[in-house]
Amino acid sequence: MGTATLPPPLTKKDFQTDQEVRWCPGCGDYAILSAVQSVFPELGIKRENFVVVSGIGCSSRFPYYMNTFGFHTIHGRAPAVATGIKAIRPDLEVWVATGDGDALSIGGNHLIHALRRNVNIKILLFNNRIYGLTKGQYSPTSGQGMVTKSTPMGSVDTPFNPLSLAIGAEASFVGRALDSDRAGLTEVLQAAARHRGSALVEIYQNCPIFNDGAFDVLKDADEAAQRLIPLRTGEPIRFGPQQEFGVKRGDWGGLDIGKVADIGEDNVVVHDPSIADTSYAFALSRLGDQNLNHVPLGILRQVERPTYDDGARAQVEQAREARTPDLQGLLRGKDTWTVA
What we know:
Blueprint: H1 29-39, E1 50-54, H2 62-65, E2 69-72, H3 78-88, E3 93-99, H4 100-106, H5 108-117, E4 122-127, H6 162-168, E5 173-178, H7 182-194, E6 199-204, H8 221-227, E7 228-231, E8 238-239, E9 245-249, E10 255-259, H9 260-263, H10 278-285, E11 295-302, H11 308-321, H12 327-332
Parallel strand pairs: 1-2, 1-3, 3-4, 4-6, 5-6, 7-11
Antiparallel strand pairs: 5-11, 8-9, 9-10
């Protein structure tokens, strides 16, 4: 008998398509696409077992550029379609590519319920703080006062904090990365891929046409050292050029920032994303504001809890084993009325 020949390991090239990648020059989406195409072959999963689902927006071109199965769905509905796929095909790895407009405006309801249910899907939220595909209107993450085509006198809306929203919806995995930080983005994507349950990764992504430079302050070395708060499991949360700043428990029950010399080494919070209570991760998400004075990066929350798709399939199997009556019987339920 001959020895079975194993197929060659997958590479980034295996996940690239022959489609012309059509984003504007300088768009952060290129970096995100490259990172995802590099992470997928490392997961040990067959290419045909991946599905990429998107809604409407610049980010939603993603399925065309991934050599996997894919759905380009309608505005805001990608999480709903992804939920259906995962519920009936547990063997598939389902990823969603969405933007701040697609996910948080018309798709807000679908997003929060996918996270609440803990559907075993991975959601990449490209946040450029603008509507790019429709040519520069303000989005749910645009800052107050932002002047756009739809807010010529400045936005009066309070912007969403996507991480706070996800944690409030009980998402079991919540992380944040920068499009220009290849190592950090890759690390968060790998962790999200390994997580069983709903995973939301917010990615700060530059739109060079309609909101250019929105995150430049985080890409300047000196400014980044003052603003970025790296989160590493099991390590004290410190930052600054000399690691002179730290995160501490606030008097009001949340988290505050102070100089380590003032608050003391022993009072610096040691990061633990596995804390089941959402208050800790929520407090982390509130350390920053729309001005990017402080920006936590990495994994804020990573907990284990039952997934919706596992529960739904278990109920179907239970019904089969119990020889449940026909469909009409299930639809009528136990309470029926006869109208004379």
